[in-house]
Amino acid sequence: MKFVLFVEGHTERKAIPSFLKRWLDPKLPRPVGIQCVRFDGWAELVKDSPGKAKLYLSKSNVIAVIALLDLYGPAFFPRAKKTPDEKYLWAKEYLEEKVKKETGQDKFFQFFAVH
Predict the structure, then answer these.
(1) CA distance 81 to 99
(2) In angstroms, rounded to a whole number, what is the distance separating the alpha carbons of residues 68 and 13?
C-alpha cells in the first residue's frame, strides 16, 4: 500500500518523501510506500490535481493522494481572503472539493506549508 504525494517543485520532490518515510514508518504497524509526483509550480498543481488524482486513485494499491503547497506562493485566493487562516481554510476546501467532483472519492487531502 502507498500514498501519492503531489508537490510543486524540485526541492520538495527531493526532500519530503524521505523525511516523511523516516517519520512515518516507526509509527505504523507496517511501512507504507510514498510515490512523489512533481508538478511545475503551484499553478500546474492546482490545475492538474483533479485529473492526476483520478488516475492514481483508480489504482488498488493507492490509499490516498496528498498535495502539499506553500501558502504564500499561489495567487488564486479570492481577494476577500486576507489572513493566512482564511486563505488556508478556503483553499483546502476548494481544492479538495475540486478533486472530489472529479474522482467521486474522499481520498484527496490538501495541505499547505505555512512559514
Answers:
(1) 21
(2) 11
Task: Please give the biggest Cα pair distance in the chain.
Answer: 44
At 7-32, the pLDDT tens digits run: 998 888 888 888 999 999 999 999 89
Q: Could you tell me the pTM of the whole model?
A: 0.90
H helices of 1-115, where?
10-24, 42-57, 84-103
pLDDT in tens, 31-50: 899 999 999 999 999 999 99
Helix (H, G, I), strand (E, B) or coil at 37: strand
Distance CA 73, CA 52 (A): 21
Q: How far apart are CA 65 and CA 93, in angstroms?
A: 15
The DSSP secondary-structure symbol of 18 reads H
Burial code (b: 16+ CB inside 10 Å, e: under 16) for 14-52 equals eebbeebeeeeeeeeeeeeebebbbbeebeebbeebbeb
